[in-house]
Amino acid sequence: MTSIGYLGPKGTFTKMAVDSVFNGEMKNGYRTIPECIDAVDKGEVDIGVVPIENAIEGTVQLTIDYLIHQVRLPVVGEIVVPIQQHLLVRKEVTNNLSDIQEVYSHSHAIAQCHQYLHRHLHAATTKHTSSTGKAAEIVSNSNEPIAAIGNRLAAEEYGLHIFQENIHDYPNNHTRFLVLSNHPEKVHIKHKKDSEKTTMLITLPNDQSGALHQILSAFSWRKLNLSKIESRPTKTGLGNYFFIIDVDQPYDDVLFPGVKSELEALGCQVTILGTYPVYHMLQN
């Protein structure tokens, strides 16, 4: 049976993403994103699913940096999930927001609900956890007047009451999750793909004027649409960066090799991180 690792414990948005596109597989939750990626690399699981970007808070930098600098795994799929953040409390704590002293959640979830917390829970202290599921677990095991930010699945898994639904600041809240695997033949997603994408890692040559413009031109004149370009430090010194570029089409035998050859002629290092299908999940 195929095994899937995800950012756990139960009740995380990553678990929701896994449940939405896989069924019948063995699923294992990991405490952190690096632990999940390591599990795939070591063969403990066949597939790993980790968050990569949120529409409100942007890139999950831990995921990018770990995949680039520590463990390089092929990207074989992407899952886009609508995110609804709720304020979760124990069922006996349902009367007054002013009683809540602490709010637990992942740092991204807390940031996504900044305005709600500012207006309604400004006196409460926010506490960061490794995941929204872990926050719900902490609240369920406590007798103190505390709350968690998480999803409906977390409320069900840990027996919590949804005090307030949809407390995120912006309605169009989605998160992208990467599907990682050294065995793409084992990846069987039950939904029809919506599109395809190729992700490239490009490192610029040092001290070459106009290099970024030349890189973008290599895609532009071939009419390759870029849905995202992001710089991250190479960790080799100030001012040294690599670029992650998402191209909205699958890798082919003509355009992409042409781009790669042109960029390498400029002194760039080019790596294809993956060419893969994209799946969009509908709001429950």
Automatic annotation (TrEMBL):
<dbReference type="InterPro" id="IPR002912">
    <property type="entry name" value="ACT_dom"/>
</dbReference>
<feature type="domain" description="Prephenate dehydratase">
    <location>
        <begin position="3"/>
        <end position="182"/>
    </location>
</feature>
<keyword id="KW-0057">Aromatic amino acid biosynthesis</keyword>
<keyword id="KW-0028">Amino-acid biosynthesis</keyword>
<comment type="pathway">
    <text>Amino-acid biosynthesis; L-phenylalanine biosynthesis; phenylpyruvate from prephenate: step 1/1.</text>
</comment>
<dbReference type="GO" id="GO:0005737">
    <property type="term" value="C:cytoplasm"/>
</dbReference>
<dbReference type="InterPro" id="IPR018528">
    <property type="entry name" value="Preph_deHydtase_CS"/>
</dbReference>
<feature type="site" description="Essential for prephenate dehydratase activity">
    <location>
        <position position="175"/>
    </location>
</feature>
<dbReference type="GO" id="GO:0004664">
    <property type="term" value="F:prephenate dehydratase activity"/>
</dbReference>
<dbReference type="GO" id="GO:0009094">
    <property type="term" value="P:L-phenylalanine biosynthetic process"/>
</dbReference>
<keyword id="KW-0584">Phenylalanine biosynthesis</keyword>
<feature type="domain" description="ACT">
    <location>
        <begin position="200"/>
        <end position="277"/>
    </location>
</feature>
<dbReference type="InterPro" id="IPR045865">
    <property type="entry name" value="ACT-like_dom_sf"/>
</dbReference>
<protein>
    <recommendedName>
        <fullName>Prephenate dehydratase</fullName>
        <ecNumber>4.2.1.51</ecNumber>
    </recommendedName>
</protein>
<dbReference type="InterPro" id="IPR001086">
    <property type="entry name" value="Preph_deHydtase"/>
</dbReference>
<keyword id="KW-0456">Lyase</keyword>
<dbReference type="InterPro" id="IPR008242">
    <property type="entry name" value="Chor_mutase/pphenate_deHydtase"/>
</dbReference>
<dbReference type="Pfam" id="PF00800">
    <property type="entry name" value="PDT"/>
</dbReference>
